[in-house]
Amino acid sequence: MAADRQSRPRQRPARAEFARWLACGLVVSTLLVPTSGAPGVFPRIVISRASYTLRLEQSPGRVRVFPVGLGRSPREEREGPTGTLFTGTDPEDREFYDPARREPAYLGGLPFLRLDGVTRRQAGRIVRPYGIHGPVTPTLIWGPVSAGCVRMRPSELRELFRLARRRPRIPVVFTDAPDAEAERRLAAAGNSTDCPESGIGVRRMGRLGPGAAHHDRSCGGVDHWYAITLQSGDLVSAELDHDGSLRLELYGLRAISTLANGTRRVLHRVPRLARYRGERYLRVVAPASPGSHPRGAVPYSLRVAVLGAP
Questions:
Q1: pLDDT recorded at residue 90
Q2: How many Cα atoms within 13 Å fall on the side-chain side of residue 235?
Q3: Alpha carbons 129 and 131: distance in angstroms, whole number
Q4: Selection from 284, 300, 255 nearest residue 141 by Cα
Q5: pTM of the predicted model, to two decimals?
């Protein structure tokens, strides 16, 4: 992560400026800084690591639910934070860009909402390693994919970021329990159309094992993502059988870079170093237009073969 920007000294506003702040509700927002993530404190953010959802509670009865990408399994020490964190207090301390990821610009100029509450020593300095940011892939992977941060879709991230600017120190509660309300709301959105994933705009990531053959259909212009676990030196071959304009892509660790792509097949050899073992991600790229398929549905079969290191 980039180093935190130093806070600039702020001068006390003149009477007229103070009145303008009060009229805009900025002073009120400052006075209503939440002190905990307890129910009844608004606004509040609840992130379920079981449902992979972010629930934004702005006031009683005013709730928004978003699918998110979260940290991977604890055995990789990439599960992410626990307990209650808070959004940052300084508006100038919220937009961050990792210098190592500027080329290509994975975060696409989107805001990075830093979370207070957890610190770590890195390269001789104290950093706050966790935040809420946009996807580092062309479309959001809904599931366990990140190195601990929370990934959101761009439009939803901007909405949350605007709220955080108005209301500093929003509590962000991470829980291992399923969020039944969030799941119900997303299911209702999916059931509103013939193609459930188009109602949500994203589909939960699946998982494939070696030798697996998966049959499905692409509809609504929504990509399908699948995780596969590989060891160092493995050779993975994935074949996509379809009658349409689908495409297959293979992404590396944390889905940051594209390793291979093709309309029918991808092939990749994992480097023979221990640090390269772990999950890779297959993306079935949805067609830009429905074409002649009924309701835009494109049936496909995806087969994965993995050969161990020779």
A1: 56
A2: 5
A3: 7
A4: 255
A5: 0.79
